[in-house]
Amino acid sequence: MLPEGARGRARVITREAAILCGRDWFEECFRQLDRDVRFDWQAADGDRVTAGALLCRMEGRARALVTAERSALNFLQTLSATATTTATYVEAARGTRTAILDTRKTLPGLRLAQKYAVRVGGGLNHRIGLYDAVLIKENHIAAAGSIHAATARARALHPGVLVETEVENFAELREALAAGVDRIMLDEFELHELSQAVAEVGGRVPLEVSGSVSLERVRAIAETGVDYISVGALTKHIRALDLSMRVELVEEG
Fold it and tell me: Above 90 in pLDDT, residue 1?
């Protein structure tokens, strides 16, 4: 057991290259136990770090360092993984007009944290919850009777809020255009269909692609000229970054 008054130092390193993200969450885990813990960061959120790089030095009460270690690393490795994955997709679409969006498929309790990490990685947030945009999907259309009816209902209930509808074919695409939605989500369209949709819409409303989006396909999708690609994998398919934290006791002077 560590003595109550013992002080310690710690070093955090990354075992793999990444985009660093999550410093505030990392620090708060320790500050919940020791308000005076000191941090000396060697990189900022959004910085690219190489394998073996020192990320942070710390000093504080040894018990606090050891107790908060796992929770703090969980935040840092998860948010860094989210930012790193996002940056990979953003890089794949670089040079096109297409922006990479996240989805609401976030880890429980980490919605705002992962949305922040997506922005750190160069992506954009789609919507935070059900309150800041209306996304009309197939079940809503079936319940309302049509895209027109669902759109009118959404406008009446939530004036001023962005209304987007998902479409699965060109008939629905044309109905969505006629209904006056703010954005159209093209679900599971083939590449040649995406190019056709872009030409038909002619910039009247932004087009978003969803469904079967992989890193291998994202460049080809972006080159069709769509405005957005939403990728659930940015937040739900991530693999945590491999980090290491070593603590040592500080000899009392």
Answer: no
Instruction: Evaluate whether 30 touches 86 at the Cβ level (below 8 Å).
Output: no
Nearest to 182 by CA among 249, 138, 228, 144: 228
The one catalytic residue among 57, 105, 217, 236: 105
| Nearest Cα residue to 116 out of 84, 83, 140, 146 | 83
> Among this protein's residues, is 236 annotated catalytic?
no
Residue of 15, 35, 70, 246 marked active site: 70
Report the SS3 class of residue 201: helix
- Residue 178 backbone dihedrals phi, psi, to 5 degrees: -65, -30
Question: What is the spatial distance between Cα 18 and Cα 87, in angstroms, rounded to a whole number?
Answer: 9
Which one is predicted more confidently, 250 or 50?
Answer: 50
Active site residue 227: no
- Length of the chain counted residue by residue: 253
Please give the backbone phi and psi of residue 181, each rounded to the nearest 5 degrees, phi first: -70, 165
137 is catalytic: yes
Residue 70 annotated in active site: yes
- Residue 19 in contact with residue 80, Cβ under 8 Å? yes
Q: Which residue shows structure tokens 């693999």? A: 239
pLDDT (mean) for 81-99: 98
